[in-house]
Amino acid sequence: MPIVELAGVTKAYRDKVAVNQLSLSIEPGQMFGLLGPNGSGKTSSIRMMIGITVPDSGEIRLFDQPFDRKNLIRVGYLPEERGLYKKMKVLDQLIFMGGLHGLKASEAHERANRWAKRMEIDGSLSKKTEELSKGMQQKIQFIAALMHDPDLVIMDEPFSGLDPVNATLLQDTLLELKEQGKAILFSTHRMDQVEKLCDAIALIHRGNLVLGGKVREIKSRYKRDRVILEFDGSAKFLESAEIAEAKNYSGHAEIKLKEDGDAQKLLAEAASMATIYRFELVEPSLEEIFIQAVGGRADA
Amino acid sequence: MHNIVLIAKREYLEQLRGKAFKVTTVLVPAIFAFVFFIAFLSGKNSGSGKHVVIAAQDAGLISSVKKLLLEDKDAKSVVDTVTVSSSQDKSALINMVDTKQIDGFLWIDKKADGSTTATYESQTAADLITSGRLRSALNHALEEQRLGQRGMSASEIETLLQRVEVDTQQIKNGKEVKSNAVSSFYSAYAMALLLTMTTMVYGLNVGRSVIQEKTSRIFEVMLATVKASDMLAGKLIGVGAVGLTQIAIWIAAALIFATTAFGAQLMTGNLDIHISWVQVVLFGVYFLLGYTLNSALFAGLGATLETEQELQQYSPLAAVPVWLSFSMMVLILSDPNSFWVVAASLFPPCTPIVMFLRMGSQMPPLWQIWLSIGLMLIAIVAVLWFSTRLYRIGILMYGKRATLPEILRWLRYS
User: Fold this and answer.
1) Are B317 and B403 a contacting pair, CB within 8 Å?
2) Which of A68-72, A279-283, B124-128 is least confident?
């Protein structure tokens, strides 16, 4: 049973099509990455999933039901434009947010304390938001999005502006939620993160779905045409007919094979001339796949 | 409904805990009391204590005028007299005014044909009160003199020219009630002013709160669970409740004050303040209606703006009905049932103020009060319809102030 399902969703603003015929589905226990450069339609898609805007056409289903606002209580949302009440105390703010997601004040109080400990901000609960650093405020927003134990977590660019320590903390939390069977969707323009964390992706470019599906399946569709080779001896094999492009960093070579290039032949040639310590046929990164998929345009 | 209550509660507590609430709760009544005290004092003392010189050729006339002026206890005038024979005397008097030895002089000139002309010359261009007193005294003295010349005795003249004060009585429900035009006016005026201030201030508060939430980007988090219309409703209820709380505090403080000796003296003494319970209830009703109308307007406006400074630029808009209402004040007080006054009191933006000013001279008919409430409710529904639409879209538009074509498009979209 998919938690989120978009079928042929389109949204246009005046003369600009923000999202065009987008279809995707997210299963429970799945970490889903919505990828694309800035302005590609990620935020527009997310806003439609949680009913902030309404699609011009197509269907959105949440929790295997046609979109219904009452189901939003099971969703945790972190928007790209973060916002908190500046003059409000952190604990009051979290209790208020919990209340909007159906938590009783006492329950929200208890959960806010628990999450604050986990996010290492329990000393700041009685402070006003404006007294806290940006990083701390980000953590409060994660708590606000997660404290009601949502079945679906939607985060728009959750890692932007986070320092490495806090990024890891959030990453671990998301992985834990995934283990618990929650569906997690996050958007980012940083492909390396998606590669590490996500099971499935949708790659959007100018509102259109360029690539979609499980990360492994997508990657397997693209040929492994890059080789990393570490060696000692003659580098003459880098002139092989199998190679399209090569860079040699004194014993560490990064090689791109020709379209019909044979990696095994290259290995044989190299082994005949030098001692090989490492020979790795590397799969293309998502970034490379994206660039290939959109035709390597500069605005991609 | 649950979310509306939560949002209203948050808004209520935040504003109640804010400094602005505490300061205005104490300062507004204090400023009002001060302003009215000053107005009362200056009204009582205006034109009094003037040092004037009566100048004429006729010594008898001069002394009569002086006697009459000194009889007016409120005037507390210092009156000197000069019997003049030439225009040189006038130059001397002008010099005395110029060097501020006297406030002014009354130059009485009797013509050969028996007619009299008089001029009051002073450094003040429009000292209406002093010139009024002088006119009254001079005419009275001339009448005495003319009647005396026709052979009447002093006692006959006194009987003939005896002055009569006109007292005012108001007829309410067929009964005569002692009325004090000045204090009725002041209490109605004060309530109208208070109503204007509170509805405007709290209306603007809603606009400001919308802009603050917009700049703090809190809307998008909220919109993920709450409908825009619920957010707006919660905000209006919360801020409105703050206004009602403040008014309740003022009423309670006024009631406590009334039990003090000084308060009791004010209620029955010179000022004779009379505010009926009907007026208190109507104050609450018109506050709620006026506030909702203003705040709905400012919520919609706030959603189209980016900064509080921009909102400030639009705030005179809210003052337009106030100017309109107060510009009709003379008509409202003299003829509270005339067509234009009734029309203004039924025009929703002006209703709360004009109705209260009308109450200063006469309680408007009940049907007009009900009609005005009905019309305000219709206006509120209409403004809310527009504002909710602007609010729904405007709160997610960051970065620039919306243009008129954009606003029209938002209205069409939603």
Assistant:
1) no
2) B124-128
Residue of chain A with shortest Cα separation from B14: A88
Which of A83, A99, A144 lies nearest to residue B6, judging by beta carbons?
A: A99
Q: What is the pTM of this model?
A: 0.71
Total number of domains constituting chain A: 2
ipTM surpassing 0.90, yes or no? Answer: no
Tell me how far apart the 2 most distant CA atoms of chain B are, in Å: 98
Q: What's domain B47-163's architecture? A: 3-Layer(aba) Sandwich (3.40)
For A180-197, the pLDDT digits (tens) are: 989 999 888 777 778 888
Tokens 């094979």 identify what position?
Answer: A257
B126 has a chain A CB within 8 A of its CB: no
Q: Are residues A127 and A205 in the same domain?
A: yes
**Cα-atom radius of gyration of chain A, to the nearest Å?**
23
Last residue of a domain, one of A204, A220, A236: A220
Angle between helices A105-118 and A134-146 (to 10 degrees): 130
Residue A205: C-alpha distances to residues A85, A193, B61, B117 (Å): 34, 18, 103, 95
Q: Which residues of A touch B218 (CB under 8 A)?
A: 83-85
C-beta separation of B302 from B397 below 8 A? no
Q: Is the dihedral of CA B73, B78, B82, B88 positive or negative?
A: negative
Q: Per the CB < 8 Å rule, is B220 touching A73?
A: no
Whether A50 has its CB under 8 Å from any CB of chain B: the answer is yes
Kindly determine whether residue B217 and residue A73, on different chains, have CB atoms separated by under 8 Å: no
List the single best residue of A47, A100, A147 to mutate versus B (max B Cβ within 10 A). Answer: A100
The answer to whether A21 and A175 are in contact (CB under 8 A) is no
What separation, in Å, do the N-terminal and C-terminal C-alpha atoms of chain A show? 34
